[in-house]
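Methods: holo model generation. Sequences were used as deposited, without trimming of termini or removal of tags, and paired with ligand SMILES retrieved from the corresponding compound records. Each pair was processed once, and we did not select among multiple samples. The sequence and pyridoxal-5'-phosphate SMILES for this entry were:
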Amino acid sequence: MSLNEKQNHGTGIDLSHHLSKVSRARKISPLRGLQKYMSKPGLVSLAGGLPSAEYFPFASVTGELLVPNSFPLNTESESSRSWFWKLFSRAEKERTTSFTVGKYPKHPGDLSLESSLQYSLASGQPQLQEIVHEFVERVFQPGYSKWATLIHTGNTAGFHAVVQTILNPGEGLMVSEWTYPGAMAIAQPYDIRAVPIGMDSEGMSSISLRQTLAEWDESARGMARPHVLYVIPIGQNPAGTTMRVARKREIYDICVEYDVIIVEDDPYFFLQEGKYVPKSERVSEPELDDEAFIASLAPSFLKIDYQGRVIRMDTFSKTVCPGARLGWFTCNPMFAERFERTTEASAAAPCGLTQVYVASLLLNWRYTGYMRWLKGLRIQYKQRRDHLVDCIAEEFHMQRTISMEGITESATMYHASLKPKRSFVPLSEKDLAFSKPLFSFIAPSAGMFVWLTLSLEDHPSFSSLGYKAVEMKLWTEIAEAGVLFAPGAMFSPVEVEDDTPGPGHFRISFSDSTPEGMKKAIGVFGAVLRKFMQAS
Ligand SMILES: Cc1ncc(COP(=O)(O)O)c(C=O)c1O
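and the model returned the structure below.
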């Protein structure tokens, strides 16, 4: 760290040279500029064109909320029963608590429909802002002092604002070699070009990142060295990988060296399910208090960010519900101010009704209640992850190896081959070929997805069709048998051609299916694969 860097440590540095032309040109909308005065007590405003709250037809909003401890904290006492049991006992009355928000506040600072349903701040309603700010401080513990939070309408819209704010047409965006297609769909029409960075068992590789930046050849690439990195560090979509703090530090340091902004899209932060342990070796986990729970999670890039070069996007989509269309940015105030201007020029502000509901939920549960909810949620998804991997382990013959592809970490890799059908009949040569692994995966320690890497080289038509066509053929047969996996090519940030080298992938989600649904799907996968490998 240079002297200058040390002086700036903890307060952030000027990063305004990263702003796009569009963002620099965006002025504060004249009427919106007055809005910050609107909440001033006693103010008589004749300036705006606000509809009178008297004519809002909503007299109050009420809701029933699940209690924060709706889901158990350990898997042992109820084993996988808690999840199975819930599904089978819908008749069991859920424990709830209720809230009401009236049109006018009873006490100063109360949520009210008068202000929530009015034209309001692009940065979000003050009550929600306050909750989110405190939450970030306690949970993500940003490494510098001058950070800001800003409510947005989910990470999709958040990333759209990021693209408009810090990228110009013709620039490159560094992304993992497999990444969330929703992000690419936002960037590509602006002529933002994907620059894929290699991955390993922890997600984006710092070696590949350094190499890409160090060896950047502007004329060969036809664009300047990229200054923005998009990363999904936890429960990566689609690969399911999770980056630990050491890798994050390496990536952060490289970004400091090459002056790169890190966009951290982290919807799966609270779905850190922990390492997969095969059924026979599974033991119960201790229940953690809030601090131990936070300490047990892979931290955000925010925690190591001493310059303010991380734009973090959180969403309520996976922890509350996607229909809320609500989340928030944590970033340096210069970017936050520009995002606010961008929101003013698009949705004007996040939806007031949604903010009333989510703020009421969080005010009712309070910090400890929300933490309790998140801990319960983690266990629910852990059980789902375990069940899906258990189903694969039951359907296929599994071998474990330790993958050493990461630099600092190793991970257990599972290789699946077809189980011999008839154990007492001598295996034919063809059968032996089929006992070779047909796919492998690292059981994810976070998120919602298992990412299979396929090895279909022994398929009878492999030499004539090649990787991509064989994989697509298999995917189609599985779909026709009634099971939908996400084909790997969907997650490539660059066009996948028939002759693109390298094995293909399927992404299997465990987030939303019933236990029987998963079992059935994996059974169908096994049956189709068995037939597929014999078909000529
Ligand atoms: C990596 C990633 N980013 C963003 C989203 C969408 O988030 P939101 O619902 O907040 O728009 C998803 C949803 O699947 C995702 O996986």
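The radius of gyration is 25 Å.
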